[in-house]
Write a structure and sequence with these properties.
single chain, four-stranded antiparallel sheet
Length: 156
């Protein structure tokens, strides 16, 4: 009888403990952020690309207040087209002490990154794969994102 009661009490405590631990918080957040509402990733980091000329593309992010992008998580890759990336001109970043990753070079507000291309053939169509990751100041880190931008470089 004592063993059954003890087992019942332990099981009840375990169930209560598990339900107390489960919440609506996203991965990378603490319980103190349970009532915090976070923007969807495409609103926190509004992304766009623009053709500057036949050898230059600009990638831009409008970053919502209280959010930041990690400089070292921004990546560019030509997924289709006869081009190679010649140079990526990153703007000045700021050093932030991130709750999740510690000190990180990051971007806040708005950034424009200029991508210079080398054209291998006369094809003007390019698909550029852009990867990035960012977090909210309050502790939510979004999973890495990937966008695919298809552009015609003859349309400047």
């Amino acid at each position: 009888m004592f063993k059954k009661t003890k087992l019942l009490v332990i099981s009840s405590l375990l169930i209560l403990g598990l339900s107390a631990c489960s919440s609506d918080t996203a991965p990378g957040t603490s319980g103190s952020n349970m009532n915090q509402e976070f923007l969807p990733v495409d609103q926190a980091f509004k992304f766009s690309t623009k053709v500057i000329d036949k050898e230059t593309i600009q990638a831009s992010w409008d970053i919502a207040e209280g959010y930041h992008l990690y400089k070292d998580k921004i990546k560019f890759d030509v997924s289709s087209g006869n081009f190679q990336i010649a140079n990526v001109d990153y703007p000045q970043s700021v050093m932030l002490n991130d709750k999740i990753f510690g000190k990180q070079e990051s971007y806040i507000n708005k950034i424009d990154i200029v991508i210079k291309l080398n054209q291998i053939s006369n094809d003007n169509l390019i698909k550029l794969q852009i990867g990035y990751q960012g977090c909210a100041k309050q502790g939510l880190c979004y999973p890495p994102q990937t966008n695919l931008s298809a552009m015609d470089l003859s349309k400047t």
